[in-house]
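Sanity check record (used in CI):
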Amino acid sequence: MEELATVVQKNNDKVEVRIIKHSACSKCDKNCGLAGNSHDQDQVFLEVEDKIGVKKGDRVLLEMEKGNLVFATLIVYLLPIFLMISGYFFGSWVAAILNIKSVELAGIAGTFIFLIISFLLNKILNSYFEKISSFQPTIKRVIN
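Expected output for Positive regulator of sigma(E), RseC/MucC:
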């Protein structure tokens, strides 16, 4: 995946870049009700390692490996779903072992507990992936 960015600040071997995210309707000059607030532009600021020697104000091309992006996306979106389903069956299984009459309620409780666990796991994995350079975007070249 490639994105255009502007160097905002340079700190030794790292630079802070600004990416302007455009909505699908951002180039539309119609003011329709369907778009809502999607005509707005959002800015994202990232800290990226500077391996090519850029200057403040340079427009650069950032790239992130597609395989790592897909892997991270799968973890963020599928881990909670998988753990929620597992939590339901785990809660039901525990209720059956402990002879609790409302097995379904225990399954629902297990779902919410495992959902909270999935959020915690995602937070831990995020901090781990932030340290791995292959999961970070890199500056490919300066575009002027």
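The longest helix spans residues 66-97. If this sentence no longer matches the regenerated tokens, the check is flagged for review.
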